[in-house]
Every structure is written in C-alpha cells, then in structure tokens.
C-alpha cells in the first residue's frame, strides 16, 4: 500500500502508453506527488523446451527493464524535479496494478483497444481497472491535449466523491467546471421524442435547481472555481461524450454493479470511457 502521496502510471509498449506517461507526470508535478512507473510483464505459455523457455523469459525481462528505463528517462528530461521510481510487476497487469494502486492518489493507464469491433476502444486492462480499482483511475488516449474546462457528470443521485475530485482538479489546473446532466423523456413513437416547449422549460429549471443544490457544498469549499451548469434533453452518456470534445478532462463516478449477470460498470461510465475525446477519470463511489 502506498505510504506517501503518489500517482501510479501503468505502461506497456503501445503507442498510448507515452501519452499516459506524460499526462501522469504532469499531474504528479501539479499535485506535488511522487510518480511511480509500473510495467507488468509476463511470458505467454508455449510448448517449448525448458532451455528455450528460460531464454524467452530472460529476453522478456530485459525488454521490460529497458522499457521502464526509457520511461524514467523521458519523465526526468521533462520534469527533473519530480520524484520518480520504477517497478516491474511479473504477472497479470490488471491484478498487479490494482494491488500497487491501493492507497494511491491516482492510477493512470493508456487506452489500448485492440478489439476488431470499433465500438470497443478501451482495452481489457483499462476496463478491468475501471470496474475494480479502489482509487481514482485516469484513462488517457493518444490524442489527449488541450487546456479546456473540466467536465463532470452530475446524475440525480450523484455521490460527492466525483464532484469533489473534479473541483479539486479544476482548482489545481485553473480551469472552470462544466457540470453536465442529460435528462430523458418518454418516446411517443420509436425514435421520436416530442417534448412540449413549456414542459421542457419546466424540466430544465427543475434539473438545474437540483444540480445547483448538489454542487453547493463543494462550491463552498472551492470558491475560486468557476462553474457552468448544463442540463438538457439528451442521454447522459451522449451529453458527456459531446462535452468531452472541448474538455481537458471528464470525471465520472464508477457506478459498479455486482449482480450475477450484469456488467460491473454502468452504461454511462462505460460509454464515456470508450468514446470520450479527452482523458477520463473514473472515481470509485
């Protein structure tokens, strides 16, 4: 378990790993945290002779060591003042990273989706961590950039943890918060939603009032953070994905389900993780 404030970044040899590494280092500097660079490595089981297997394991270990050395050099060149350490984790990446991240401020990984279906863009390790990590998880894509506002999803029963994380991060970055909520309306016919204008105004007003009340305690603790509340007729996940286009970060709560047949993550969190156009932080609740 981590004893000191630290940001942990899990890296591999994929293109997205460098973006995650750079993003994690920048966050660690802003937080005055340590940065721990971790790489989980393993050798696939093959029907090889013991002598050949030993050579394969040694080659894999050397490649892993070189990977973390390069990562450490990259970070030290960009942030020579940052406290950086590295660690090799033999075995399953998701399990090892979850263990390392217990007590950490933040766990950071890249989005490495290799599935043939284009809708599944996240990667099994990232999605496993999003479903089970005990600390906030940041998933960073290779296209992550920008100094835009910080977007936080505010559901009707939103816990305080994601909102507090969003405001604290916005204060560190010096950017405003966009608190986003989408509301739905019964369909009159499949694919057709007709909302009377007067009723839409009333719903907007009620939703905005509720979001304002939910944010009030956090706004008192972060009075310097500018806030814009956005509500409207939209699927909540679609509203957040759309807002991500101009955002520097999206924060969502991890609504985890432990039913026998259900997926661990709720549909809003999963869709935002798969389709957001900026880094996403999933805060366990």
Automatic annotation (TrEMBL):
Protein name: Universal stress protein
CDD domains per the UniProt record, alphabetical: USP-like
Residue span(s) of domain UspA: 6-141, 150-284
One family name in Pfam for this protein: Usp
Source organism superkingdom: Bacteria
Stated family: Belongs to the universal stress protein A family.
PANTHER family: STRESS RESPONSE PROTEIN NHAX, UNIVERSAL STRESS PROTEIN UP12
Transmembrane segments: none
